[in-house]
Design a protein that fits this description.
There is one protein chain. This protein is of the alpha/beta class. The chain has two domains: 2-124 and 194-306, Malonyl-Coenzyme A Acyl Carrier Protein, domain 2; 126-185, Alpha-Beta Plaits (2-Layer Sandwich), CATH 3.30.70. The chain is built from 13 helices and nine strands. The chain has helices at residues 26-37, 41-46, 50-54, 56-74, 92-99, 105-125, 138-147, 167-175, 201-209, 232-242, 249-258, 272-280, 295-306, and strands spanning 2-6, 84-88, 128-135, 151-157, 160-166, 181-185, 219-220, 263-266, 286-288. Strands 7-2-1-8-9 form a five-stranded parallel beta sheet, sandwiched between helices. Strands 4-5-3-6 form a four-stranded antiparallel beta sheet. α4 packs parallel to α5 (92-99), α6 (105-125) packs antiparallel against α9 and α9 (201-209) runs antiparallel to α10. It starts with a strand and ends with a helix.
């Protein structure tokens, strides 16, 4: 069984979409999405600098668009619904929701635009951020976060927890990390998946309430608890709640393992989630899409892990 996973914010790098726009139809598709969202996805994916694409209002639509673009390049819409499962990390869960047929691409991109705008405004209200805590005893890590008034916003598995809160508290954690742990600041502009983001919820909920989501056509896992969700309405409601709730990617990986997943393919901009899988799901083959040169290998990987054996 194949898992197709979609990365979250912080996976973007300057110019990463440039080679993808040389593929037939991709430039026009991204231009269409840029017009629909009012975000210059083409410019931000090709020429904008690192500081510009770190901006939440830019980064989130850019990452979802990139994932959907790479899915189109792979021809995933022609993949049978059986034999694979979809999941996404944080904003990547919106990408996965579109892949699963719950929302069309245009609605998914409008959803993420509203989400990103609201979260950017919330992040600007006070100086907050996120840092990855790598290694250490899990209980000691959580105790250290609590002592500094920080929230474990992402439980990523593979020995990685992401702390979120004020920049002052994050700096204090970095100065006194838990035993045998490293603290690395992330390229995000706010304390996502915490109560700091509460002001972003009302506008997003109002938009979500007006949607008519379809039930997932494939197995779709939720960041809330790692479980598959069969109702399209519940999927969208959970996406709204996700803005202020921790991301339990560790539980998503546990579900993938329990489901008998034999291969994990990460869509663009790939690398982060396959890296976590290599540590938490040792021995499970992975492939990360990073450039168009990876497409042939990805297609072969899909064929290998979606083949039904008698």
């Amino acid at each position: 069984m194949l898992a197709i996973v979609c990365p979250g914010q912080g996976s973007q790098t300057p110019g990463f979409l440039a080679p993808w726009l040389e593929l037939d139809g991709m430039s026009g598709l991204l231009a269409e999405w840029s017009t629909a969202t009012g975000v210059d996805l083409t410019g931000h994916g090709t020429v904008s600098d690192e500081e510009t694409i770190k901006d939440t209002a830019v980064a989130q639509p850019l990452i979802v668009a990139a994932g959907l673009l790479s899915a189109r390049a792979l021809g995933l819409k022609d993949l049978p619904a059986q034999g694979w499962v979809a999941a996404g990390h944080s904003v990547g869960e919106i990408t996965a929701t579109a892949l699963a047929g719950v929302l069309p691409a245009a609605e998914a991109l409008e959803f993420v635009r509203i989400r990103a705008t609201g979260m950017a405004a919330a992040a600007a209200a006070e100086p907050t951020g996120m840092s990855a805590v790598l290694g250490g005893d899990p209980d000691e890590v959580l105790a250290a976060l609590a002592a500094h008034g920080l929230v474990p916003a992402n439980a990523n598995g593979g020995g990685q927890t992401v702390a979120a809160g004020s920049l002052e508290s994050l700096a204090a954690l970095a100065a006194e990390p838990p035993a045998k742990a490293r603290v690395i600041a992330l390229k995000v502009a706010g304390a996502f998946h915490t109560p700091y983001m509460a002001t972003a919820v009302p506008d997003l909920k109002a938009f979500a309430d007006g949607l008519s989501p379809a039930d997932p056509a494939v197995t779709l896992l939720s960041n809330r608890d790692g479980e598959a969700v069969g109702s399209g309405r519940e999927v969208v409601d959970r996406l709204v709640d996700q803005v202020t709730r921790p991301v339990r990617w560790d539980l998503c990986m546990q579900t993938l393992q329990a489901s008998g997943v034999t291969g994990i393919l990460e869509l663009l901009p790939g690398g982060t989630l396959t890296g976590l899988a290599k540590r938490a799901l040792k021995g499970t083959p992975t492939l990360a899409l990073k450039s168009p040169e990876d497409l042939d290998a990805a297609r072969a990987f899909i064929a290998e892990h979606t083949t039904t054996h008698e």
